[in-house]
Amino acid sequence: MLNKKPAGSPLVVALVEDDRLLREETAKHLIAHDFVVHAVNSVSAFDDLAARVAIDLFVLDWNLPGESGLSLSRRLRESLPDAGIVLMTARAALHDRVTGYRQGGADVYLSKPVSPNELVAVLINLGRRVRPAISTPNWQLIRRDRTLTGPQPEQKIRLTSKETTLLVALIQAHDHKMESGALCDLYVSDESDAMMNKHALEEMIARLRKKIKAVRDEDSEAAIKSVWGFGYQLCLPIELA
């Protein structure tokens, strides 16, 4: 349910609240503050939602029909240790708040009526923890589609099979660095060519640099740099997806 998203993309909130009016008003307020909100009225409805949608933050009412919000909070904390969870309830007693933290694993316990602006502030703070990619965006390499995507929507590059193989190897290498000979050896079983030599490798990397540079800032450093007397190093933060 948690995933890394491109920098600047809205935080996705699951709101589980059985009071229809409160659910609609809360969702409307969060949407006005640039959250993407999926609002449901029960834990069973949430489970259906979570199977389809990647969620960043969870806002749960304690008293729900069927399984309680406290139970759901406990489940989420066990399966997603870094989840951002807000538990809302009319129970204002100290022992109830302690129960919410200790047994439910909630990050924040808010007593109803909850200030909409306080809820927004809480979610923004939790978002900084669950979505670190917002401040340090990475690129993603999708091997199946042979695509390299950046933090911005327009930063999408189609890769050849050889370029994909090269990037995967550099991503997984120690310090993202490999010798030229070892990179050439990646293609010994490639039936399309007899063998990759260092000159062909250099040309392929030059073409890949141009592809990446075309969708980045002009003053950005080279995505792949030559290491004299050794080989090449990947300098662009890329995650395998």
Tell me what the structure shows.
The protein is α/β, with parallel strands linked by helices and 241 residues long. It has two domains: 12-134, Response regulator (Rossmann fold); 139-240, Winged helix-like DNA-binding domain superfamily/Winged helix DNA-binding domain (Arc Repressor Mutant, subunit A). Helix content is 37%, strand content 20%. It contains eight helices and twelve strands. The protein has helices at residues 20-32, 43-50, 69-79, 94-102, 116-130, 161-172, 180-185, 198-213; strands spanning 12-16, 36-40, 57-61, 84-89, 108-111, 139-142, 147-149, 156-158, 177-179, 224-227, 231-234, 238-240. The strands form three sheets. The chain has a five-stranded parallel beta sheet with strand order 2-1-3-4-5, with helices on both faces. A four-stranded mixed beta sheet has the order 8-7-6-12, with helices on one face. A three-stranded antiparallel beta sheet has the order 9-11-10. Strand 6 and strand 7 form a beta hairpin. The chain starts with 11 loop residues before the first strand and ends with a strand. Residues 1-7 have low confidence and may be disordered.
How many beta-strand elements? 12
| Helical residue percent band | 25-40%
CATH topology of the largest domain: Rossmann fold
Mean of the pLDDT scores? 84
Please summarize the sheet with the most strands: 5 strands, parallel
- What's the Cα radius of gyration? 24 Å
Give the strand order, joined by hyphens, for the main sheet: 2-1-3-4-5
Q: Which second-level CATH architecture of the largest domain applies?
A: 3-Layer(aba) Sandwich
Q: Mind telling me the CATH class of the largest domain?
A: Alpha Beta
The total number of structural domains is 2
Distance between the termini: 15 Å
**Which stretches of 5+ consecutive residues score pLDDT under 50?**
1-7
Provide a count of the helices.
8
**What is the fourth-level CATH superfamily of the largest domain?**
Response regulator
Q: How would the global form be characterised?
A: elongated
Helix/strand order: EHEHEHEHEHEEEHEHHEEE
Determine the structural class based on helices, strands and strand pairing. Answer: alpha/beta
The portion of residues forming beta strands comes to 15-25%
